[in-house]
Design goal:
alpha/beta, 6-stranded mixed beta sheet, 4-stranded antiparallel beta sheet, 34% helix, globular
Length: 266
Protein backbone atom coordinates (compact mmCIF):
# COMPACT_ATOMS: atom_id res chain seq x y z
CA UNK A 1 0.00 0.00 0.00
CA UNK A 2 1.34 3.43 -0.91
CA UNK A 3 2.45 5.69 1.89
CA UNK A 4 0.96 8.66 0.09
CA UNK A 5 -2.82 9.10 0.36
CA UNK A 6 -4.88 9.10 -2.81
CA UNK A 7 -7.39 11.38 -1.06
CA UNK A 8 -7.01 13.70 1.90
CA UNK A 9 -9.65 15.87 3.55
CA UNK A 10 -8.42 18.66 5.80
CA UNK A 11 -10.56 20.49 8.34
CA UNK A 12 -13.81 20.14 6.40
CA UNK A 13 -16.74 22.17 7.67
CA UNK A 14 -20.23 22.13 6.19
CA UNK A 15 -23.00 24.41 7.38
CA UNK A 16 -26.62 24.43 6.26
CA UNK A 17 -27.87 27.76 7.52
CA UNK A 18 -27.26 27.85 11.26
CA UNK A 19 -26.75 24.07 11.45
CA UNK A 20 -23.20 22.70 11.33
CA UNK A 21 -23.43 19.15 9.97
CA UNK A 22 -19.69 18.56 9.43
CA UNK A 23 -17.33 19.97 12.04
CA UNK A 24 -13.58 20.08 11.33
CA UNK A 25 -13.24 16.62 9.74
CA UNK A 26 -9.88 15.40 8.42
CA UNK A 27 -9.17 11.95 6.97
CA UNK A 28 -6.82 10.08 4.66
CA UNK A 29 -7.55 7.34 2.14
CA UNK A 30 -4.52 5.46 0.83
CA UNK A 31 -4.27 4.06 -2.68
CA UNK A 32 -5.40 0.43 -2.78
CA UNK A 33 -7.18 0.41 0.58
CA UNK A 34 -10.80 0.43 1.64
CA UNK A 35 -11.63 2.87 4.41
CA UNK A 36 -14.87 2.28 6.30
CA UNK A 37 -16.77 5.36 7.42
CA UNK A 38 -19.23 4.22 10.07
CA UNK A 39 -21.78 5.88 12.32
CA UNK A 40 -25.47 6.13 13.04
CA UNK A 41 -27.92 7.84 10.67
CA UNK A 42 -27.36 11.58 10.65
CA UNK A 43 -23.72 11.36 11.74
CA UNK A 44 -22.52 13.01 8.52
CA UNK A 45 -21.11 10.01 6.64
CA UNK A 46 -22.84 10.63 3.31
CA UNK A 47 -22.12 14.35 3.52
CA UNK A 48 -18.40 13.58 3.85
CA UNK A 49 -18.63 11.35 0.77
CA UNK A 50 -20.24 14.09 -1.28
CA UNK A 51 -17.79 16.71 -0.06
CA UNK A 52 -14.88 14.40 -0.92
CA UNK A 53 -16.14 14.06 -4.50
CA UNK A 54 -17.10 17.75 -4.66
CA UNK A 55 -20.71 16.88 -5.35
CA UNK A 56 -21.48 19.54 -2.76
CA UNK A 57 -19.30 22.46 -1.67
CA UNK A 58 -17.89 22.75 1.85
CA UNK A 59 -18.17 25.85 3.96
CA UNK A 60 -14.40 25.61 4.48
CA UNK A 61 -11.56 23.10 4.30
CA UNK A 62 -9.48 21.33 1.65
CA UNK A 63 -9.78 18.12 -0.37
CA UNK A 64 -6.53 16.88 -1.92
CA UNK A 65 -6.68 14.25 -4.67
CA UNK A 66 -3.62 12.59 -6.25
CA UNK A 67 -4.60 10.89 -9.52
CA UNK A 68 -1.98 9.30 -11.75
CA UNK A 69 -0.80 11.26 -14.78
CA UNK A 70 -0.05 9.82 -18.22
CA UNK A 71 3.34 8.60 -16.94
CA UNK A 72 1.79 6.81 -13.96
CA UNK A 73 3.00 9.42 -11.48
CA UNK A 74 0.67 10.98 -8.87
CA UNK A 75 -0.06 14.70 -9.12
CA UNK A 76 -1.63 16.60 -6.25
CA UNK A 77 -4.75 18.64 -6.88
CA UNK A 78 -6.97 20.57 -4.52
CA UNK A 79 -10.43 19.59 -5.75
CA UNK A 80 -11.95 22.73 -4.29
CA UNK A 81 -9.72 25.00 -6.38
CA UNK A 82 -9.48 23.31 -9.78
CA UNK A 83 -11.23 24.92 -12.72
CA UNK A 84 -14.65 23.64 -13.83
CA UNK A 85 -13.01 22.21 -16.97
CA UNK A 86 -10.41 20.34 -14.93
CA UNK A 87 -13.10 19.09 -12.54
CA UNK A 88 -15.07 17.64 -15.44
CA UNK A 89 -11.95 15.77 -16.57
CA UNK A 90 -11.37 14.48 -13.05
CA UNK A 91 -14.91 13.10 -12.79
CA UNK A 92 -13.85 10.05 -14.79
CA UNK A 93 -11.42 9.18 -11.97
CA UNK A 94 -14.07 9.55 -9.23
CA UNK A 95 -17.14 7.35 -8.98
CA UNK A 96 -19.94 6.60 -6.52
CA UNK A 97 -22.52 3.86 -5.93
CA UNK A 98 -25.55 5.24 -4.14
CA UNK A 99 -27.73 3.63 -1.49
CA UNK A 100 -30.94 3.21 -3.49
CA UNK A 101 -30.50 0.93 -6.51
CA UNK A 102 -33.95 1.86 -7.77
CA UNK A 103 -33.57 5.66 -7.78
CA UNK A 104 -30.04 5.55 -9.23
CA UNK A 105 -31.12 4.18 -12.62
CA UNK A 106 -33.12 6.06 -15.26
CA UNK A 107 -36.19 3.87 -15.94
CA UNK A 108 -36.31 5.11 -19.55
CA UNK A 109 -32.80 3.87 -20.38
CA UNK A 110 -31.77 0.32 -21.23
CA UNK A 111 -28.75 -1.17 -19.51
CA UNK A 112 -26.78 -0.62 -22.71
CA UNK A 113 -27.63 3.10 -22.65
CA UNK A 114 -26.83 3.31 -18.93
CA UNK A 115 -23.41 1.71 -19.31
CA UNK A 116 -22.60 3.71 -22.45
CA UNK A 117 -23.39 7.01 -20.74
CA UNK A 118 -20.01 7.47 -18.91
CA UNK A 119 -18.13 6.89 -22.18
CA UNK A 120 -20.31 9.42 -24.00
CA UNK A 121 -20.05 12.05 -21.26
CA UNK A 122 -16.26 11.84 -21.18
CA UNK A 123 -15.84 11.29 -24.93
CA UNK A 124 -13.87 8.11 -24.32
CA UNK A 125 -13.70 4.93 -26.33
CA UNK A 126 -12.44 1.74 -24.67
CA UNK A 127 -9.31 0.29 -26.36
CA UNK A 128 -11.09 -3.03 -26.94
CA UNK A 129 -14.19 -1.31 -28.34
CA UNK A 130 -17.42 -0.33 -26.61
CA UNK A 131 -19.24 -3.62 -27.17
CA UNK A 132 -16.45 -5.71 -25.72
CA UNK A 133 -16.18 -3.37 -22.72
CA UNK A 134 -19.93 -3.57 -22.02
CA UNK A 135 -19.79 -7.37 -22.03
CA UNK A 136 -16.71 -7.25 -19.79
CA UNK A 137 -18.47 -4.96 -17.29
CA UNK A 138 -21.52 -7.20 -17.06
CA UNK A 139 -19.35 -10.26 -16.63
CA UNK A 140 -17.45 -8.50 -13.81
CA UNK A 141 -20.66 -7.98 -11.85
CA UNK A 142 -22.15 -11.39 -12.58
CA UNK A 143 -24.76 -10.47 -15.19
CA UNK A 144 -25.39 -11.92 -18.62
CA UNK A 145 -24.97 -9.92 -21.83
CA UNK A 146 -28.72 -10.29 -22.45
CA UNK A 147 -29.17 -7.61 -19.76
CA UNK A 148 -28.01 -4.95 -22.23
CA UNK A 149 -31.36 -4.71 -24.00
CA UNK A 150 -33.49 -4.68 -20.84
CA UNK A 151 -34.83 -1.86 -18.65
CA UNK A 152 -34.40 -1.33 -14.87
CA UNK A 153 -37.92 -2.49 -14.00
CA UNK A 154 -37.04 -5.94 -15.37
CA UNK A 155 -34.39 -6.50 -12.67
CA UNK A 156 -34.41 -7.23 -8.96
CA UNK A 157 -32.92 -4.81 -6.46
CA UNK A 158 -29.70 -6.78 -6.21
CA UNK A 159 -29.35 -6.93 -9.99
CA UNK A 160 -29.95 -3.20 -10.24
CA UNK A 161 -27.19 -2.55 -7.75
CA UNK A 162 -24.88 -4.74 -9.82
CA UNK A 163 -25.71 -2.55 -12.83
CA UNK A 164 -24.92 0.55 -10.76
CA UNK A 165 -21.57 -0.98 -9.77
CA UNK A 166 -20.80 -1.79 -13.42
CA UNK A 167 -21.56 1.80 -14.42
CA UNK A 168 -19.38 3.12 -11.59
CA UNK A 169 -16.46 0.97 -12.80
CA UNK A 170 -16.93 1.70 -16.50
CA UNK A 171 -14.05 4.20 -16.79
CA UNK A 172 -11.83 2.39 -14.26
CA UNK A 173 -11.94 5.16 -11.63
CA UNK A 174 -9.11 5.63 -9.17
CA UNK A 175 -11.55 6.24 -6.29
CA UNK A 176 -14.86 4.46 -5.71
CA UNK A 177 -17.26 5.67 -3.03
CA UNK A 178 -19.81 3.10 -1.81
CA UNK A 179 -22.58 4.92 0.04
CA UNK A 180 -24.53 2.27 2.03
CA UNK A 181 -24.68 0.11 -1.11
CA UNK A 182 -26.65 -2.78 0.43
CA UNK A 183 -28.84 -1.06 3.04
CA UNK A 184 -31.85 -1.06 0.68
CA UNK A 185 -31.49 -4.79 -0.08
CA UNK A 186 -32.59 -7.80 1.93
CA UNK A 187 -29.89 -9.63 3.87
CA UNK A 188 -29.18 -12.52 1.49
CA UNK A 189 -29.10 -10.31 -1.63
CA UNK A 190 -26.99 -7.74 0.19
CA UNK A 191 -24.53 -10.48 1.16
CA UNK A 192 -24.11 -11.42 -2.50
CA UNK A 193 -23.40 -7.81 -3.44
CA UNK A 194 -20.89 -7.46 -0.59
CA UNK A 195 -19.10 -10.60 -1.78
CA UNK A 196 -19.02 -9.15 -5.30
CA UNK A 197 -17.43 -5.95 -3.99
CA UNK A 198 -14.83 -7.94 -2.08
CA UNK A 199 -13.98 -9.94 -5.21
CA UNK A 200 -13.64 -6.72 -7.24
CA UNK A 201 -11.39 -5.25 -4.55
CA UNK A 202 -9.07 -8.23 -4.73
CA UNK A 203 -9.10 -8.39 -8.53
CA UNK A 204 -8.47 -4.73 -9.30
CA UNK A 205 -6.92 -3.28 -6.14
CA UNK A 206 -9.72 -0.75 -5.86
CA UNK A 207 -9.43 2.27 -3.60
CA UNK A 208 -12.79 2.60 -1.83
CA UNK A 209 -14.53 4.75 0.73
CA UNK A 210 -17.18 2.43 2.17
CA UNK A 211 -19.98 4.12 4.11
CA UNK A 212 -22.08 2.00 6.44
CA UNK A 213 -23.85 1.83 9.78
CA UNK A 214 -22.95 -1.88 10.06
CA UNK A 215 -19.81 -2.78 11.98
CA UNK A 216 -19.77 -6.40 10.67
CA UNK A 217 -19.78 -5.20 7.05
CA UNK A 218 -17.01 -2.72 7.77
CA UNK A 219 -14.97 -5.48 9.38
CA UNK A 220 -15.51 -7.76 6.39
CA UNK A 221 -14.60 -5.23 3.69
CA UNK A 222 -12.35 -2.56 5.15
CA UNK A 223 -8.66 -2.17 5.95
CA UNK A 224 -9.28 0.72 8.34
CA UNK A 225 -12.32 2.24 10.00
CA UNK A 226 -13.27 5.80 10.90
CA UNK A 227 -16.11 6.37 13.35
CA UNK A 228 -18.27 9.49 13.02
CA UNK A 229 -20.66 11.04 15.53
CA UNK A 230 -22.63 14.26 15.04
CA UNK A 231 -20.43 15.54 12.24
CA UNK A 232 -17.11 14.76 13.90
CA UNK A 233 -14.59 11.94 13.70
CA UNK A 234 -14.28 10.36 17.13
CA UNK A 235 -11.92 7.49 16.35
CA UNK A 236 -9.93 6.01 13.45
CA UNK A 237 -7.52 3.14 12.90
CA UNK A 238 -7.39 -0.51 11.89
CA UNK A 239 -10.30 -2.77 12.77
CA UNK A 240 -8.45 -4.22 15.75
CA UNK A 241 -7.39 -0.79 17.00
CA UNK A 242 -10.86 0.73 16.80
CA UNK A 243 -13.25 -2.16 17.33
CA UNK A 244 -11.42 -4.68 19.47
CA UNK A 245 -10.12 -2.00 21.82
CA UNK A 246 -12.47 0.99 21.33
CA UNK A 247 -11.47 4.12 23.23
CA UNK A 248 -14.72 6.02 22.81
CA UNK A 249 -18.02 5.19 24.51
CA UNK A 250 -19.83 5.95 21.25
CA UNK A 251 -17.80 3.28 19.40
CA UNK A 252 -18.59 0.81 22.16
CA UNK A 253 -22.28 1.62 21.78
CA UNK A 254 -22.14 1.09 18.01
CA UNK A 255 -20.51 -2.29 18.50
CA UNK A 256 -23.10 -3.29 21.07
CA UNK A 257 -25.93 -2.22 18.73
CA UNK A 258 -24.60 -4.27 15.81
CA UNK A 259 -23.64 -7.69 17.18
CA UNK A 260 -21.35 -9.89 15.13
CA UNK A 261 -23.05 -11.47 12.14
CA UNK A 262 -22.03 -14.49 10.09
CA UNK A 263 -19.67 -13.81 7.19
CA UNK A 264 -21.55 -12.48 4.13
CA UNK A 265 -20.55 -15.56 2.13
CA UNK A 266 -23.54 -17.26 0.54
Amino acid sequence: MSKEPLLEAHNLIKDYGAARVINDVSLQLFRGETLGLVGESGSGKSTIARLSLRLIEPTSGRVLFRPLDANGQPRELDLLHVTPTEMRRLRRKLSIVFQDPYAALDPRMTVRQTLCEPFAIHNERPPQGIEARLHELLNEVGLDASALRRYPHEFSGGQRQRINIARALALRPELLVLDEPVSALDVSVGAQVINLLRDLQARYGLTCLFISHSMPLVRYLCDRVTVMQRGRIVETGTWSEVCECPREIYTQQLLAATPELPSPTV
